[in-house]
Amino acid sequence: MLEIKNLKSRIGDIEILRGLSLSVNAGEVHAIMGPNGSGKSTLAQVVAGHKDYEVTAGTVTFKGQDLLELEPEERAREGIFLGFQYPVEIPGVNNAYLLKAALNAKRKHHGLDEIDAFEFLKLAKEKMVTLGMDPKFLNRGVNEGFSGGEKKRNEILQMAMLEPDLAILDETDSGLDIDALKAVAHGVNSLRSPERAIVLVTHYQRLLDYIEPDFVHVLSQGQIIMSGDKSLALELEDKGYDWVREAANG
Amino acid sequence: MTRLSTDKLRAIIGRLPTTRDEDWKYTDLSRARDITSRWLDAGCETVAAEIDDDITRITSSIDATWFVIANGELRLPGDTPGVSAQRLDSAPVADSALAELNTALLLDGLRVRIEGTLEKPIGLLLIDGAADAATSQTYVEIEFAANSAGEVIEYHASLGATDHYANVIIDITVGDNAAANHVRIQDRDLSHVQTARTVVNVGRDARFSSTGFDLGGGLIRNDIVIDIAHPGAEISFDGLYLADEGQHIDNHTRVDHRAGPATSRQEYRGILNGKCRCVWNGKAIVHQGADGTDADQANHNLLLSEKAEIDAKPELEIYTDDVKCSHGTTVGQLDEASLFYLRTRGLDRQHAKRILTHAFAAGLVSRIPVESSREAVGKLVEARLAVVIQLDEDFS
Asked: pLDDT class for B102, splitting at 50, 70, 90?
C-alpha cells in the first residue's frame, strides 16, 4: 500500500530523513520507534504532504500512485489520515462541521453523494460512544479548550469517521492517562482490518501493550536501523536506544 | 432647529479635526465637513424616508428594551422595571469641536439609569438617513447604579443610501460594584460617515466589558475612552472590523489607569479585503500611584488583499512601578499550521481559508455574554463575511 524508497527530506538546511525505506501492506500494523529527533514526526509530516519538508531524494508511492505529486487534501481524499501529535485548536468552527466537511470532501472525490444530516449524526454519535466521548463534543469548537486526552480522542474520532486506508498516528499516546490510552487503543483496534494499514509513531512501548503491532522499526538519524516483530519493542524498553545503535553498527 | 447662527455653525465645522492633528492623522473628515455644509446650505432640512419598517426589522432581531433615535429624534419605550429614562434638551458643555457640533445641533438627548439586575438588555438604535445629505447628532448618558448589572446594545444603522454624517457621543458610568456589558454594532451604509465617542467611567470594583462590531460604513471613526479612577475595576473591550472595498474604519482606544489594582484588556481584530483602510490605535496610560495595574492590548489583522491597508499602533505610557503591561500586534495571513491541519482532513486550501477566517471573527462574537445578543451579532457577522470574503456557509 505504502512504499517508501530511499527517502531524503530536509527542513531548511537541516537534513532529517537520510535515506529511509519502508514498505507497509494492507492489513498490517507498523510501529515506528526512535529517540527524539530521529525523524519520526518528519516522516509522518512528509507522507501527509507538509510543504516545509522538502523531499530531496527517493520515492513514495501509495496504492501505486506517486504520493509526492499530490496536495495534502488529495492525499487525504485518497485515503491517508494523519493523527497529529499536536492537533490545532480552531475556536468558532464546530467539531461536527469539520467532521462533516471532511467526510463529504472524501465522498465527493469518490463520486458519492453528500451524507445526509441524520445519517451523519447517527454515525458520529455511534463512533463517539465507542471512544467514550460525550456527544456534546460535536457542538464544541474544534479542539477548543480540549485537554490533551480529549484532543487525541478527537483525532481518533476523525479517523473513525473518515475510515482511511492508511492511518499514521503521530505520538497519539503522548500525554494520555491510562483511561484515555485504553479508549484511543480501542478506537484504533476497532479499525484494524485486512484492507487497512496503520502506522504508529511512538516514543514509548506503552501504547504497544494495547495495540499489538505486526512490525516494529527503529528510526535513528533519519534511517530505519533495525526492524523486527513486537518483541523488539520490549527489548528496546529494556535496553534503551543506545543498544540498538550499537547492535546496528556492529 | 439649530441653536446657533449658520455662521457660528460654519465656524465649528471649520474647527473639526484634520489630518494635521496627530490623533486624526489617518482619518480625513472632509466628507463630514462637506455633508454638513451642504446640509446647512439646504436649510438643515431632514426629510426622512419611510422609517418604521426598518426600525421594526432591527428591533425585532434582538430581544431588548429599545430606545430609538431616528435622525436625532428620540422614541422612548414603555416603562421598564429597573430602568429610568429621561429626554435631555441639551448636552453638557463641549470640550472639542466634535462635541460643540453635537451640542449645537442636538435634537433629543437621552439619559438612562439602570438599577438592580436587568432582565433583558437595553437597546439603543441610532438610525439615520434622509432624502438628501444630512447630519444628525446623538448624545446619550447611561448610568449603571451601584451594584446593578445588565447589558446595553448600541446599534448604528442607515436608512437608504444618501450621504449622511452621524456624530455620536455616549457617556457611560458604571457605579461601584456594578457589572455592565456593552455591545456596539455599526452596520451603516457606505454612504455614511460616523464619528462616535464613547466615554466610560468606572467605579470601585466595577466590571465593564464591551464588544464592538464594525460591519459597514464608508468612513467610520470610533473613540472609546475609559477612565479607571478607583481600585478593583475589571475592564475588557474588544472590537472586530470587517472592511471591504472603499471603507475606512478607525478605532482609537484610550484607557487611563489612575488607581490600582485594576485590570484592562483589549483585543481588536480586523479582516480587510479589497481597497480599504483600517486604523487601530490603542493607548494605555498607567498614572502615578496606579499600583497593581494589569493592562493588556492586542490587535490582529487578516489582510486578504494587497490593496488593503492597516495602521496599527499600540501606545503604553507607564508612570508607576508595580504594573504588568503587555501588547501585541499582528498583521498577516492565516495560520499555516491550521491550514495544513484542515487540508489533511481533505478540505482544499480555499475551503480551509474560509473556515479559518470565519473562526477568526467568531472568536470575538463568542465573547458576548448574553446568548440572544451573541446569536444576533453572529448572524450579522456571517452575513457581512459573506460579502467581504465571499464566505457563504453555515459553520454551525
From this structure: very high
B366 touches chain A (CB under 8 A): yes
B192, exposed or middle or buried, with CB in 10 Å at 0-12, 13-18, 19+? buried
Burial category of B372 from C-beta neighbours within 10 Å (exposed 0-12, middle 13-18, buried 19 and up): middle
| Same-domain check for residues B343 and B328 | no
Plot region of A240 (φ>0 → left; ψ -120 to 50 → alpha; else → beta): left
In this structure, are B360 and B241 located in the same domain?
A: no
Show Cβ contacts of residue B7 under 8 Å, excluding neighbours closer than 6 positions: none
Scan residues 166-225 of A and list those with Cβ closer than 8 Å to B.
Answer: none
A238 by Cβ neighbours in 10 Å (0-12 / 13-18 / 19+) ranks as: exposed
Helix, strand, coil tally for chain B in percent (to 5): 20, 45, 35
Q: What is the DSSP letter of A112?
A: P
pTM: 0.83
For residue B77, is the peptide bond before it cis, meaning its omega torsion is within 30 degrees of 0?
A: no
What's the structural domain count of chain B?
2
Q: Domain check: are B172 and B72 in the same one?
A: yes
Spatial CB neighbours of B367, under 8 Å, sequence gap ≥ 6:
B209, B211, B236, B238
> Over the stretch B170-198, which tens digit does the pLDDT of each residue have?
999 999 999 999 999 999 999 999 999 99
User: How far A117 CA sits from the closest chain B CA (Å)?
Assistant: 12
Q: Per-domain residue ranges for chain A?
A: 2-39+49-249
Whether the Cβ atoms of residue B158 and residue B168 lie closer than 8 Å to each other: no
Q: What is the DSSP letter of B218?
A: S
CA distance B126 to chain A (A): 29
CA-closest candidate to residue B84, choices B76, B72, B74: B76
A158/B contact by beta carbon, under 8 A? yes
Contact B345 A48 (CB under 8 A): no
* Whole-number percent of chain A with pLDDT over 90: 72
CATH number belonging to the domain at A2-39+49-249, selected among 3.40.50.720, 3.40.50.300, 3.40.50.360, 3.40.190.10: 3.40.50.300
Q: What is the pLDDT of residue B116?
A: 97
| Residue B221 contacts residue B247 (beta carbons within 8 Å) | no
For residue B190 the three cell numbers come to 457606505
Whether chain A has a CB inside 8 Å of the CB on B348: the answer is yes
Q: Which of B343, B355, B356, B358 to mutate to test the interface with A (most CBs of A within 10 A)?
A: B343
**Any domain includes B1:** no
Cell 505610557 belongs to residue: B317
B307 & B376 share domain: no
Specify the residue for cell string 474647527: B15
ipTM of the complex: 0.95
